UniProtKB/TrEMBL annotation:
Organism this protein belongs to: Paenibacillus tyrfis
Transmembrane segments: 6-27, 78-97, 118-137
Keywords of this entry: Membrane, Transmembrane, Transmembrane helix
Domain of life: Bacteria
Protein name, as recorded: Integral membrane protein
């Protein structure tokens, strides 16, 4: 059972991170898109955020089960560090994408400023995801 949990955990990590890379080239296309095309790109952004969120639920649940089945204590440095980064990323994700996407749907918006914010949020969130991935794979002894 433990090996299946590791597999589920790894797949959910891939599904949480991978779709965000599709959004990188889409950012350039958002600069000139109008009408239905703009809404299609924004729908894609919203879908990726939701997919990542739900894959993250599976990721956390499988991680907790792995901790329980593998007898990993909460005080293990890389586990504690991952949960600190995880909670910070949850707060960040809640404020980073959805409000900006909603503002881009409004008729009167400063597209360039909102796209800069969306781009910065995307790259920052990818960085945070990679920090968590690094903690999970490298398992550093932080203290």
């Amino acid at each position: 059972m433990y090996s299946w949990l590791v597999f589920i955990h790894a797949v959910s990590a891939m599904v949480s991170i991978g779709p965000f890379f599709v959004l990188i080239p889409m950012l350039r296309k958002l600069k000139t898109a109008d009408g239905d095309l703009l809404h299609s790109y924004l729908d894609s952004f919203r879908f990726v955020v939701r997919l990542s969120k739900h894959a993250g639920h599976v990721l956390v649940a499988s991680g907790l089960l792995l901790m329980w089945r593998g007898s990993w204590p909460w005080t293990t440095p890389w586990i504690f560090g991952t949960f600190v980064v995880l909670f910070a990323s949850l707060l960040f994700m809640a404020r980073a994408f959805s409000p900006t996407i909603r503002k881009l749907r409004e008729p009167e918006h400063d597209r360039q400023a909102l796209l800069r914010k969306l781009s910065r949020s995307l790259y920052l969130y990818l960085f945070v995801l990679f920090v968590m991935l690094w903690l999970m794979i490298m398992k550093p002894m932080l203290w």
